[in-house]
């Protein structure tokens, strides 16, 4: 349980570090669902007449592994997690098709 709590805190810290908004009309939202272990970084708002709604980062914890479900940033989230002490074997690139996962340094599932 301590590992799971640690993973949750690391994920929250990483998402907070990426939550930088420079446009006052666009709100940066952090979603921390610790009951179901879903974590997201969203942008919501308006840019002129265009609606902005985007999920930039989505991480889940499933079966005690961190799944990177979405990464629309230039950051290497897997490496950030490893740098914070999470073993690569506990990280799954859910945004990659299952047939590609064995060719990464991370877990296949």
UniProtKB/TrEMBL annotation:
CDD domains: XisI-like (cd16382)
Coiled coil segments of this chain: none
Gene3D superfamilies tied to this protein: XisI-like
Protein name: XisI protein
Organism listed in the record: Lyngbya confervoides BDU141951
Upper taxonomic lineage: Bacteria, Bacillati, Cyanobacteriota, Cyanophyceae, Oscillatoriophycideae
């Amino acid at each position: 349980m301590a590992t799971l709590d640690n993973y949750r805190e690391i994920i929250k810290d990483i998402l907070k570090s990426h939550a930088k908004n420079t446009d006052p009309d666009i709100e940066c939202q952090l979603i921390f669902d610790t009951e179901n272990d879903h974590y997201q970084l969203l942008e919501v708002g308006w840019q002129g007449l265009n609606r902005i709604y985007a999920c930039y980062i989505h991480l889940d914890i499933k079966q005690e592994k961190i799944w990177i479900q979405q990464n629309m940033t230039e950051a290497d989230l897997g490496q950030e997690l490893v740098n914070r002490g999470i073993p690569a074997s506990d990280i799954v690139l859910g945004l990659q098709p299952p047939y590609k996962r064995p060719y990464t340094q991370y877990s296949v599932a």
